[in-house]
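Troubleshooting: if your tokenizer reports a length mismatch, compare against these two reference records.
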Amino acid sequence: MVDATDGFLTNLTAAAKAGSPLGRADLTALAQCDDPAVFRKLGRTLKSATAEATGLTAPKVGVLATYTVGPLEPILRASLAAGGMLPTFTIGDYAAFDLTLSRSDDPLFAPDQDVLFCTLDSSYFLPKDWSGSDVDALTAFITERVRSFRGLLADVVTRGKTTVLAHTVPLPAVVRDGLVSWSGRAKVSRCWAQLNAAILELAEEHSAIAVADFVSTLADEAVAAQDDRLLRFADLPYTDAALMVLAREARRFLQAKTGLSRKVLALDLDNTQWGGVLGEVGAAGVELGGLYPGSAYKEFQRSVLRLRDQGVILALASKNDAEHVEAALTEHPEVLLRPEMFSASAVNWSPKSGNLKAMAAQLSLSPNAFVFMDDSRFERGEVTAALPEVTVIAADGDPAYLVRNLLRHGWFDTLELTDTDRKRPGLYKARAERGNFAEGFQSAEDYLKALEVVVTVAEATPFDVARIAQLAARTNQFNLTGLRFDQAETTTMSDSDDHIVLSCSVADRFGDEGMVGAAWVRKEADAWEVLNLVMSCRVLGRGVEQAMVGWLLRRAKEAGVATLRGTFTPSARNTVSSKLWSQLGFEHTGDRDTTQVHELAVDGAADLVPDSIQLKEK
């Protein structure tokens, strides 16, 4: 737990009041704070701030509750700020939950809404009065209420573009303990478990619905869910501590949806991956495996390995002699994180901030994609001072808490795990090897030809949609218009005769990069318009985006289309993609508000696929 007296609250409050950017290191400290009073206070202060002034993204969030929203709003605002977001809230009417869900014209369902947060309490599923002697009637009522709720939520996502976040609901003690029969109590508890299972199943049945397991998270946090006086006095069914748990789950979801999750976990070695200092005790003397504390470090390595299997890129940042580290990682029988598991490595005596910056450049990633974990307060402070955009996690203290400290804030969350995610660590390791390979050539053209780049462009299939939506959410630099079509919208467009959704995959002599690009195209009678095109930065500089537009030009010629139209909306982060259309020979024909429009006459246009690329189709 982070103590607010460390100064981050003072810094954030002062910056918010002054209309200045909020410090990234202070926001990371806020995310790791467990004091609800801090979140209520800062959330109220941030209400008058703007995303532009604070340097945060601005998701639009609807909140529809079965209870008084009250303190949830400031707590949720501060929690989202901790994840790099300053939301614009639309709050649903009190005591109108079902009615609101049934209306298609409510502002909560606006097309530009990023998420509708449906937050529930037990009163929604329970009768006003019930008999402890008639358990069957009680369970029947609960079952019917959850059936009705599922239907309402399914209707919401099928009639529009709304993404919904719901959550499981704890069974109140007044129901559980109000049943004197053990068999009756078990029956109602089973019914309530089925209620929560039915809510969780919504996420499996509808791609536009996500569900947070509030019940299990609340139990793990060991905080009181309810304050009886607040419930009776103000219809507040959850304590501030419980609302903190809910708000953190919402932050984790929106981080993943808006592309703010991190990609790289950079780890120290001594007293982080094992106990003890390698240079003092030698490889045989470090604590790893066996009894505590070695067992805690072994479990930490096992958890890190699970993250890698799900696409988190591992980097090694250790002040040690490189040959000793290599021997220990290779020869120690209890080591799980072998040298080949790390996509980048910096084992030397240089400042760790410089090493992290160099590894970020090597991987073609920004430092804000990094989470850094180290036991040394000095090293953490040095990295925070030099690279405040890096998320820094403490690894000191009792090693039994290493896994919890790493995982509980969801820095690496993604909406759905894709095949590309699973391959990502290997892809980025190949990127480092590719960079070394480039040093042996006199010109960029020779290097690109030697890479033997193969680009595969195809219309999206149902199996591609999750990855394409993920690219839309996560890609910021090579993102032409900033339109982030989610999974539901992408599915609708790919099924439409009036649109094309494209996927782009890349391979070269170093391996398969997987799906790295996507485009959403509207087909009109005489023109095809690229609504957005995104490309992973890890393949920039190879002409892949040109090959993708070249594929589209070839299809437009075959279809007899007169004009291919490209659009570009400038942002603070996408300047790298600003010249694409002009470089490909498109003419700037005008603007729609802040969006530039570029056009190319299809008939007679030269082929756009670079000579160094072999273009394939599925």
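Reference record two:
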Amino acid sequence: MPSLKKYFVVALLLITANAFAKNPLTITSPDKKISFSLNTDKAGLYYKISYKGMVLAENSRLNISFKNGGPFANDVTFKVVHAEKLTEDYELITGHASKIHSECNRAIIPVREQSGAKRMLYVEVRIFNDGAAFRYVMPKQVGMDKVEITAETNTFNLSQNPKATVLLRDNFTTSHEGIYTKTTLDKLAADTLMDMPALFAFPGGAYMAITEAALHNYAGMYLIKHNGVLESRLSPLPKEPGIAVKATLPHNSPWRVMMISDRVGAFLESNILTNLNEPNKLKDLSWLKPGKTTFPWWNGNVTPDWLNAPGNNYVTNMYYVDFCAKNKIEYHSVVEYGLHEWYVNDGSGFQPGPNADPSKAVPGLDMQQICDSAAARGVGIRVWVHFYALYPKLEQTFAQYEKWGIKGLMCDFMDRDDQEMVNMQEEVLQCAAKHKLHIQFHGAYKPTGMQRTYPNEFSREGTLNYENDKWGNLVTPDTDLDILFTRLLAGSTDYHLGGFRAATPQNFKVNYTRPMVMGTRCHMLAMYVALENPLGMACDYPEAYVGQSGFDFLQQVPTTWDETRVLDAEPSQFLTIARRKGSEWYIGAITNSAKRDLKTKLDFLPAGNYTAEIWSDAPDANVDANHLVKEVKPVTRETTLSTLMASGGGQVVRIYKGK
């Protein structure tokens, strides 16, 4: 990277034999509210973080270890450097906003061991108004042109015993789906992996979310509580469990990010992760078109009785394509029929067999004909593919997709975030961009802001979502709230939205075909605004929508946004969020299993007269969860809306200029 080489040259020019000293270094955010202090002792580097004068993390270690030479901790000293202000403006296709202004104070700190091999590295620190981040930058040096990193055991020694909302994991092989644990830090299970982002609420009113940014050619990071203190853990290489990262120098780690605010909603507005990523590497973006998509696998491939010979064929897919064309649904996803993929595969249970070939459709399915017919109706075709069927035939498959006219795909079943898998996923993005394909990673690790660098990364799953309603009852309005304040902080998440058979907990039944969803229909509608997902699904079958209350909102709601504002929020309880697309605003409010009456001020609107279309839970939604009421009324920025939600309910509002 030219920018890193520039850092090395500048820093090395400043360093002399006696330039290193044991002096503390403090860097603050531009607004002076966040303070990061770095120091050393006999055990190595440690840092402290304060917010508005309140210590959030004290005596926390920076620890990185190598196969050759062991931990970087041999009487280390660092050069005290002056922080510089870094500002940047850029645009995003997907994210919380479309036009981003980034501002932080940055320092690149040379650190050297005074004994042993006398190795050297840099710690780069960036402090934003909404968080702090650091990473290791490893230059090439005498006797050290390659590294094998065995561990990063950075610690996050949080003060005040905060309340934690975390997803515990058994091991590093995971789809990142599960129920969140909510307890105080001292009661968290010891030596158990925690997924990221993880949320911590301090008694003094501050919040911290810990995650990582710019995961590139490196191992994914987790947390663990060890000896009472949070430590990081790196996902090991599958065939070399003692090694996490192999790299040729120069090289750098991802950013270790601590989002910080006294307003938890600020984390859902924050662009800190994309700020920490490299700029867009794709020159032509004109072909990238986010939008809503069908996903018939979720509903069980329901077709009407009048459809001639349903199956993995033209007529079944065109039944869904015609529905899309009539109802402002941009994409149809070709997935499977009768539990067999749309492509050639001699495996079972959607797992690839030895002759799986996702560049070839099953007999009877003419993909060229489907793509051409859909394009004539203004609908794009997407497909689902198993990662391990795709990767061995990556170039061959993507070249065929481009020839057919496929616009993108869901890539599924990775369930790893070791360095090898991280690199393979980046290779998928690069090859997909070459062939003008967008990517939706399913069964994948959290986002790390890489959609700035590769804008064709539209969405990632890594969360328990409504697909689980086909076989269980774990997904509830309460779990939706937990995910919004943890996993969603990292970015877009791939939920199977659009189930129009809402049910109260007592009426919910597990159905593989025509699944139910728990919570009210208004709760489902609000998830289109609450979640960030450039490929929001309409995953039910056409007859489930046509003529149904609330379908008009699903047709209208965008999937990308120009601005995001959290109006009111309390973790695990409720969220009211407003997102702007052009001149229109959309508000989504959801609650957990408790009924709730909130007041939503519209003072974020510019001056003028507006019309609000409001979809709310009906008074009997606690009995008929699909019942909602719609109201149209004039509003201004002085208006306060009443947001009355049933248990597991929600509300959505569309606001546009004029009457």
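Descriptive notes for reference record two:
- The two ends are 53 Å apart (CA to CA).
- Residues 253 and 369 are 46 Å apart (CA to CA).
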